[in-house]
Design a protein that fits this description.
8-stranded mixed beta sheet, 27% helix, disordered C terminus
């Protein structure tokens, strides 16, 4: 699971935007009440899970959101985790089940962040909305009927990846 998450993140940040990917405006950096790069102190209801550090990020912390706090367009998530880099919101990781929930999330995302191109809409495995301050990735595995909605700050995510890439094998 971690490898899959890392691969999605790397693709979201390292590759140039696909021509079919929806573009987010520079002023779009809030997702369902969470502001990317906002200080941890703005979210006192989060439950601490674990802390680590990297060469460039001295405090890499993982928190869990109460399940009832994150329901989007009728979709209840199995897991809602938020990661903070040096006390600033770096990413939101939400997992869900079912194709119907993927379709509900897709409709909501398009209403909030812009319509995808027809070719991108047909691509079931993963779609993205990319901007300078926020990247949104919605993926779904039809074999397992499980999906991930992942939102990240490209700037903070790059710091984490930079640190990971500098570690010796």
């Amino acid at each position: 699971m971690r490898l899959a998450v890392a691969a999605v993140a790397l693709l979201a940040v390292a590759t140039p935007p696909a021509t079919e990917a929806a573009r987010l405006g520079d002023d779009q950096y809030t997702f369902s009440g969470y502001t990317m790069e906002a200080p941890l102190s703005e979210y006192p209801a989060l439950k601490f899970l674990k802390r680590s550090e990297t060469e460039f990020v001295k405090d890499l912390s993982l928190y869990e959101s109460p399940a009832a706090a994150l329901i989007i367009n009728g979709v209840t998530f199995n897991r809602a985790r938020l990661r903070f880099a040096d006390q600033r919101l770096e990413s939101i990781f939400l997992s869900y089940e079912g194709r119907e929930n993927r379709d509900k999330l897709m409709r909501w995302l398009e209403e909030q962040y812009g319509k995808l191109m027809p070719a991108e809409r047909r691509f079931i495995s993963q779609v993205q909305w990319q901007g300078m301050r926020m990247v949104i990735s919605l993926s779904f595995n039809p074999n397992t009927q499980e999906g991930i909605l992942w939102v990240l700050s490209p700037e903070l995510h790059h710091l984490i990846n930079e640190a990971t890439a500098s570690l010796p094998d």
